[in-house]
Amino acid sequence: MKNHPHSRRGSVLLMTMILVGILALSIVSYYQNLIPKFRGGYQGAAWHEALHGAEAGADYALRQLNIWAGTTTDPNSYPWTTNSWSYTNGSYTVNGERALDSSQLPVLGGQSNVRVTRITADVYARENFGTVPTLNPWFRIRSTARADLPGKLVSSDSRDLQLRRMKLNAKNGTGGADPNVTRTVEIIARPRYTFSRAIVTVTSLNLGNSSNWRVDSFDSQDTTKSNTGTIAGGIYPGSGSAKVQANGSIASAQTNPVSTPYGPLISGNGAVVLGNVQTNGGDDPSTTAFENVSGSSGMDQTRITSDFNEDIITPTAPSWAWWTYQGAAPGVYVTGPKAAPTRYAIAGNLGSFNVTAPAAGVTGYIEIIVTGSLSTGNGGSAGITIPPNVYASIWVNGDIDFGNGEINANASSSRVAANLTVYGVSTAANASFSASGNATQVLALNAPNYTASLNGTVDTTGAFVVKSFSISGGGNGGFHYDEALGKSGLIAGWDVASNFEDTRIDL
Amino acid sequence: MTAWCNRRFQRGITLVETMFAMTVGVIVLGIFTYAGVGITRSLSATERYIIGIANENRLMDYVAADLRRAVRVSILSGGTSTILKNSGSTDYSITETTILVLGIPDYYGSNTPDNLRGSTFKTSRYPRTTLNTNATYNGSANPLLNGVVPWVDAQTVVGTKRVTRFAPSTAGTGEIQVRYYRAVRSLSDPTMCYFRAEYPSGSSTASSVVEIAERIQDNLSTTTLLISARNNGLVFQLQSSFTPTYRRSGATSAATNGVLEVSARNPRRD
Lengths: 507, 270
Description:
The complex is a heterodimer.
Chain A: H1 3-69, E1 85-87, E2 98-100, E3 107-109, E4 114-126, E5 137-148, H2 158-164, E6 180-193, E7 199-201, E8 205-206, E9 214-218, E10 227-230, E11 233-235, E12 250-252, E13 266-267, E14 272-273, E15 277-279, E16 293-294, E17 304-305, E18 325-327, E19 342-346, E20 353-354, E21 364-370, E22 374-375, E23 383-385, E24 390-396, E25 400-401, E26 406-407, E27 420-424, E28 432-437, E29 440-456, E30 459-473, E31 478-482, E32 491-501
Parallel strand pairs in A: 7-12, 7-30, 8-13, 8-30, 9-14, 9-31, 12-15, 13-16, 15-17, 18-19, 19-21, 20-23, 21-24, 22-25, 23-26, 24-27, 25-28, 26-29, 27-29, 28-29, 29-30, 30-31
Antiparallel strand pairs in A: 1-2, 2-4, 3-4, 4-5, 5-6, 6-32, 10-11
Chain B: H1 2-9, H2 15-69, E1 72-77, E2 80-83, E3 92-93, E4 98-105, H3 128-133, H4 151-154, E5 155-158, E6 161-164, E7 175-184, E8 192-199, E9 208-213, E10 221-230, E11 235-244, E12 256-263
Antiparallel strand pairs in B: 1-2, 1-4, 3-10, 4-7, 5-6, 7-8, 8-9, 10-11, 11-12
């Protein structure tokens, strides 16, 4: 009989334990349901990190191409092999696919152990247009990267699995669990030619302050976008012509101080610019105004951006093993065939000169190195004559002054910018390019270390890459970009023509 | 003594004791029930909150992945299409009638879903093995022009820039259209969801429609998706907000606000 009270107390304990057990099971069930949802956040973060890895791999390959562009002019002779790239199929070695050795693949690390697992590059297409196609390659770069995932085979939502395509059940080489997520990015890299814009400056860019002064474009190789000129190509059709194009883009690589990042980097001075206007930063993203450009009333506001970020490579004079002539500036300049152009090594300064045209139907080539300055002086006879069937390249180690002369612009000249390329190779701090008065110049100028100053109603056709650019006055002059310059020539680097994340690739 | 004891232990409880015990019991049960309901509501709310956050993230991740590769971006509202480049202070909220429309490259060999390994649905139009061996790409006398995509099919000109043309010049625009919008799941299921629909080039019939977020608007919460653009359509801001409504009064709690900045990787074609 004494056991009865004890028995009743025992049932209370049992009930309590059952209640606690039910509560505990509820909590366990809850957390089992909830924790995967929390884990979804981690998985999402790893998915993002994998994209960073894939893009880093693509950037690595693109950077490699840009380095080679600065050292080798021929894109078909880039040093792939010595940089740990090898063909994935030895039977296809002309345009075939190369893969970067696994020992060279970038490792980003971090909590998710992000790393690039594969980078390949092949020739996607070759430039095949114009009368003499360059057949320069467009490279296709594919980069895959992975990030580790938490070690449980669960995901919060099937929709997440569909988007993120996680490999939750993956095994490593030893059979151990290796859950991970991968992402693959494919970019097509196209050549960026030195003269892909009207004016590119390393530092300041100040446009003409005349309301008539303008930057526009035309295409000397397209009869619908130019007026009849010479056998070399068409000429600028005039500012009122319907043939005038709106691709006279300008860009400045100058940056603002870190302490004051927003402010003008290009002074438009009200000049008309029919083209893109790009700076390297300077625009406050929190405002709708374009702080990066002042005096922009003559510009299309929708074409102003702050995303210019390209390497500008300073040219150097070629090193010749032989030459046609060496000494002070001669009186006659002749040409040779493309495979063997005439080579003039001018000791000292060079003034106005005329190149003798080869026979009709023959295209002549001439290369000139000037150890001093190139100064054509002023007056009626000042200038440079490049006949329509001649291509001239000039490397100048001193200042360049075209006075008020006609540079490749008189009646005997080609009047096409591609026929006269001038390289400023001086490394002096005050190297300069100048022209004045009513000078007319038709050329492509690559002088990233030269301060370009125009004064008066100078009219320029072609393209400039200079340290800085400014024009005082402007009058009825202008700058007319020849779009043909942007389609061939020396490769200054590689641009991304397209970027596509391959979200359907088999895992 | 034993008899007295037995009688004492066998004695019944009084009405007062019964009432007291019942009162205490009811109070205890009430407390347990109240706590249980509260805990259940709290747990449910927490779960909904996490689902809401996951919805937010998934929504923005889906749109961001497509924006990165987009070549056209516009808002379709009431039959009017507005190119999205510089939206200023306007944020477009994606709804049943305000639809985000993206043009992305027509990159794959096929856009008809096919989960078979190596299917054309999963591979580029121009995989390296095809370029290496297919006669279409290997008929040139110049070896440099073999094993590559023909120039006319490889590129197109946008402004002065030549950019990649992903589909052959004979295959339409070279783009497919992706639409993001809000709608009920089906005629029989009024659950409000966000969807991603893919339309092949030149087609008004979706080749795939994927539900990317569910329960985005009910009596417990609201999830929204907003988009704005700047820098001439090179930079987009996505915002997704989750607003819980857990109070008995129906008042909303403070909303979460996920923000994602996306940089378009391709030149715009619009």
